[in-house]
Known about the structure:
Helix 1 runs antiparallel to helix 3 (135-213) and helix 4 packs across helix 5 (254-262). The protein has 367 residues and is an alpha+beta fold. Helices cover 67% and strands 7% of the residues. One of its GO terms (biological process) is proteolysis.
Amino acid sequence: MHKKVIATVLSVAIATSCSASMVVFADTLQEQLQQQKKELAEHENDFQEAQKIVEELNSKIEELDYNIEETLNKIDELNNKITDIEKNIENAKQEIEQAQIDMEAEKKLYEQRMSAMYMNGETGYVEIVLGAKNLSDLFSRIQIVRTITELDKEIIATLKAKQAEVEASKKLMEQENAELAATKGEQQNKMSELQVAKDEQQKYIDEAQKEATAYANVVNKDKAEIDKTNELIEQARAATQKYTPSRGSAEISSNAIVAYASNYLGRPYQWGATGPNSFDCSGFTSYVFDHFGVNLPRVSRSQAGVGSYVDKSDLQPGDLVFFGSPIRHVGIYVGNNCYIHSPQTGDVVKISTLSSRSDFVTARRVY
């Protein structure tokens, strides 16, 4: 009897103990689950913050790239102006030299006349007049003296005026040349400052990218879209004949544009580069469309004014897509929410998703 009671008590105790343990275990799992959910949410937030930082820094890098490209273009313009001014100064020097030669020739002619007069015993115009043999001869001599005198004065005055004008022009152009040289130096200093800022920001972009890479699984969707886009590009290649015509004579179509642009995947970004071995963003788009005889302006902001407006929802392969406010970047839409572009310093021509950017501003169709 006592044994049965003891057994019963033990059974109840064990059951109660097991039940309590299961409750505790379940509570622990629930707590772990909540913690995991919390960590997941934190990781997602961390990734979004990292992506936001990367996007902001990329935008700044692109803006700097655009500014550097503009500065390079301005320096090129100044160099051309300086060359023209130097040519003008050289021409002015030659004109001055010729004017001096002309003046010397006239001076010698004048001296020869004076010498001839002296040799003939006539020391001046008065003597020429007084040497007249009769009244008719007197009038003739007066007219000759008057004509010679006026001609001398006119020639000398003209030559002096020309020399003064050329000297003034030379002085003005030298001043302009000095001003242009100073401006060029200022722009080169600005370029150096931009490069310093760019190097500094690249450090941040590298750090932010490392942080974003830690959550790389979150971007698999983008990768899948890009993979799909690559398949579409291959289809476009298959649907487009090989390009044997010279640049500017190829037949244009959406497939042709995408297929031709994809030939340059992997080419490095370079300020002011227009291909084919390297490109900046607008240099890439200009190079691609030039192949089809479409002449685009040199910089992205100017390209945004060409062709016809296209709503984002109506994008077709071959459309130009623009980013930044003010506009500082351009690429070519290739379909499947993706575009091909030459992004920024340190990167290469590649395909990216439109959804990876929040600064899309407009699109244009130029063919």
